[in-house]
Design goal:
The structure is a homodimer of 335-residue chains. Chain A is an alpha+beta fold and 335 residues long. Chain A folds into 2 domains: 142 residues, PurM-like, N-terminal domain (60s Ribosomal Protein L30, Chain: A), CATH 3.30.1330; 167 residues, Phosphoribosyl-aminoimidazole Synthetase, Chain A, domain 2. Chain A is built from 10 helices and 14 strands. In chain A, a hairpin with a 6-residue loop joins β1 and β2. The relative contact order of chain A is 0.16. Chains A and B meet through α1, β3, β4, α4 and β5 of A and α1, β3, β4, α4 and β5 of B.
Chain lengths: 335, 335
């Protein structure tokens, strides 16, 4: 099977973007809007049994979770460009059995709640029946001052690599769900159950780092940026490949989610952080001269320096103590 | 099962659009872009076994047909606002068995060919695996001079009702496909097979009336407009309900596709034209004073006056000779 990325690369070669357009193959496309602003657009597809399973939650709560997640993943793309989200459109295909439930109301209530939080208006979309699986496609349209969009292709050798928040919790939440664990009823005080709930929630309802992305772009602090959807390792590869650079990551600095250490996961915690995916944190690079302008925390989330951009010839490597090894591009693989 | 339209109406009541926004619930949403232009956005979902069947065509030709149709139906929405399409994004979910074929290349080649024809650039989207069915969601972004977008809600009593092209052929093509008929190999001279081919092609690869929509908007000729996706009857109901009017249609004036008369269809030709759906022609209203400005043909397609907008209290009716009856809102029902 030809991979999605191979295909996108082959497709890019067929496109002849004009000068009004940047960002094809980036987190979002950037279009000139007027002399001061650019429009940024991203679109993301969620398909049942690829991106989520119906068995994870009762239908109404699944509707609530998916309304949040469908918008969150596209908001995250807009955040990764440093843009401000403004509008969204949502297409949804539902089996008849799901149409008859509270799913769709919960879906839109939840989507609209997240949209309001980011001053984003739902302006359209499509609804359809689907033979058996739930399908959701969400488009977010944002805007940014002309020339300020942060691409993934503009990292420079010597730039420092930063990541927001903690990594690996969404992947651990996914592992829990796939192993049959479910959200508790919310009345538990059992610390282990509470930890599992937190991890599962990070998988079901990720938080897009919209304010952080805007802050970094507005203050010209990020030289390049991408959101972590496929996993730190895979998305670092995307960034380095687009920028034609290498990178050296320090494993000891990885902000591995604390909750992971409290559970017996089948994969090593560092693997979950590197290859886990769906963190929807921001991975960005900063010129050394601007390092002091990056706070240790932003909106309660840590901003952690994890490595440095190197020459492409040095490859993308990760060091553990004195030893370094190539950091493989393997990332989050959907079911 | 609650209908899609009921749901959209209930959703509309939850939205609080600000003054920068019109057209929610119309063919496309309209956003202020700058002091001179507005952005128009539409998004449409196509799902296998709801909107098309894999058995209709060999996979590569299906890819070609769907690449065209996915873009065409969204372009048709943009056309129905009178806007000029500029950009598109396409999300596509494919089963692994389809990824391995020429489907995806054919899909994008065909989509890009139609996009080029309308000076529209593909700027993004998403690709994903799907468990078993093909899913496509296409967004088109267009633009129009501020205040010129033609809504479906602005028809006035006394306006004349026009429709472009011929009606019912796409629905007849669908009926042929559902009855097991397929496109011929193209080497036939049999008139009956050629007629069936033409009807099937109208179902598979509809032509969005982009230039006509722009023309009507630029010259301020259409007082309201909608594209015919659900069928003339259903879409006339949408237009009249949005405009708070009734309408009187003259059945003898309906531009029923000639090809239908050449076949023995299971439904009466007028029914296929009224309730068939997927014609992607434009239904628009014209002030009586502007009637002389509407040519008999535009781009080789006929423009036919089929009725008049009436008071809402008179309902939506159709007359056959001296008798008139209510025109039911029943429209194209997907499989």
């Amino acid at each position: 099977m030809r991979g999605e990325f191979d295909f996108i690369n082959s497709l890019k070669s067929k496109l002849k973007p004009d000068s009004s357009l940047t960002g094809i193959g980036d987190d979002a496309a950037v279009i000139n809007q007027n002399s001061e602003l650019q429009t940024v657009v991203s679109q993301d597809l969620l398909i049942e049994d690829i991106d989520f399973r119906r068995a994870w939650l009762p239908l109404n709560r699944l509707g609530r979770a998916l309304g949040h997640k469908a918008l969150a993943v596209s908001l995250s793309d807009i955040a990764a460009m440093g843009a401000t989200p403004r509008y969204c459109l949502t297409s949804i295909g539902l089996p008849e059995t799901v149409w008859r439930t509270a799913f769709i109301d919960e879906f839109y209530d939840s989507l609209l709640a997240l949209a309001r939080q980011h001053n984003t208006q739902l302006i359209g979309g499509d609804t359809s029946r689907s033979p058996d699986r739930i399908v959701i496609d969400c488009t977010v349209i944002g805007e940014i001052k002309r020339g300020r969009a942060v691409l993934r292709s503009t990292a420079k050798v010597g730039d420092l690599v930063f990541v927001s928040g903690e990594l690996g919790d969404a992947a651990t939440g996914l592992e829990l769900l796939e192993n049959g664990k479910r959200l508790s009823t919310g009345r538990t005080a059992n610390p282990s159950l509470l930890t599992m709930d937190a991890l599962i929630k990070r998988q079901l309802t990720p938080t897009p780092r919209v304010e952080l992305g805007c802050h970094l772009a507005q203050h010209n602090l990020a030289t390049s940026m991408i959101d972590i959807s496929d996993g730190l390792a895979a998305d670092l590869h995307h960034l380095c490949n687009a920028s034609n650079t290498g990178a050296l990551i320090d494993e000891s600095r990885l902000p591995i989610a604390h909750a992971i250490h409290q559970l017996k996961t089948t994969r090593p915690p560092a693997d979950l952080a590197l290859y886990g995916g769906e963190d929807y944190e921001l991975l960005f690079t900063v010129a050394p001269a601007d390092k002091h302008k990056i706070p240790a925390h932003f909106d309660d989330e840590s901003l952690t320096e994890i490595g440095i951009i190197t020459e492409a010839s040095e490859g993308i490597t990760i060091k553990t103590g004195e030893r370094s090894r190539p950091l493989k591009a393997k990332g989050f693989v959907h079911f």
